[in-house]
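Tutorial handout. Part one gives the primary structure; part two gives the three-dimensional structure as tokens.
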Amino acid sequence: MRHVFNSITLAVIVYDNKADSYIINSYAKHLLAIDNNSNTITKAALSNITLLDSKTNTFIAISQLFLADHSSSILLKHHHQTTLLNVTRTVFCDDLIMLTLEHSNIGSSEEYNFDKIISEISAELIDIQNDNIDQQIDFALKAIGTVCKADRSYLFEFNANNQTLTNTHEWVNTGITSYKNRLQNVPKSELPYFFDVMNLTHVFQVNDITQLPAEAQSEKTEFEIQNIKSVLCIGLRFDNELVGFIGCDCVKQQRQWSDIDLIRIKLVGEIINNALKNIKYKQKLHDAQQQLINANTKLNQLANTDGLTNIANRRYFDKVLKSELKRCARQKKPISLIMCDIDFFKHYNDFYGHQKGDDVLKTVANALKNLCKREGDLAARYGGEEFALILPLVDAERCSEFAHLVQQKIASLDIAHEYSPIASSLTLSFGCYSCIPNSTTQAEEMINNADKALYQAKNANRNQINVYTT
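Part two.
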């Protein structure tokens, strides 16, 4: 009986539930690489066997195959090889269950896995993001390199100048030298024959590099440096322009590339190319959106900024004053407004010239802007030589203090104004108005009251700070 059991040309494993052990025939021991003279083995002898569920690609123990919901096919990994096996389960009685393991008709596991892996890669790359594309490309290169029995697989992309190219991704088999670091910014002119063929046919297929024509001497020399015996490359195109290529090399021995190899590398190339296109389209879209945002920001700045002084203009001043009035009304907090005017500015312009007058406006505006340090404070050019300061959450007393601070700052600038009848340097007149607004308080009311105070300051010989009182 033992002789008959061992002569079966299928891998057979019987589980004896009473003895909690396995009975295994010679074919199964050979398949599973079990070194044991006896047909009866323990669970421990099977513990180092690596099996994967062929559908989920997850690890599975042999004991699980004896269950009713076992996988109908498994992948056996051994010595860097993977074998696809069909599993048949037979129940003799409650205590004896038999498994037969048979090589699948699908072919080698590498070829079987390829379709599944490529399907997964394609799904991942449909909506790929920049932070994940490198991982997926590396995975795809490993898949095509493995199934084509190559020693290296790689992706080259043209640089921005379109005259040099770089090896951006590479997979190498065990014991094979990587040349990725060496193949950076390679001039296209160094491989003229390669690119002539690639531009013409989009395919560069060489089974034996010693058979390359004389005009391919540059390519032959490079292949010899890398110990390449056979090479297969597929061009990647974007907007009808060659943007790079993927390829496979054989180093250990020559390979007669098959039609299946060509179809598969084309498939992987198309998947990678589409992913790179999507990334480029997304980048272009992002760049366009960013340009639009920047343009809108610039337009808003231009719309809200005084062109001469580079501080807020009248339009933005009106908008902010209304907004801050509503905010302070909701919070029942004070708000202050200061209107200020350069004294005898017409005299200054007439005697120093309009260019000097513009320079003074810029200097005063910059001083006002630098003093408005709190969030919500705003310095604006109201018109001509008149400026306005919005001070949310500031009462009348602090408003007056702020006006004195501005007055001191302008005095410290010591801008000569020898044609002013009141001082030898530039001065300002100030009108201040403060209130605790309510829902009916209007911006026009605040402006009018601050303007009245300013008018009184100017009538009082200028260089004055006047606070509006009812």
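Part three, for discussion. Residues 259-304 form the longest helix (46 residues). The first strand starts at residue 11 and ends at 16.
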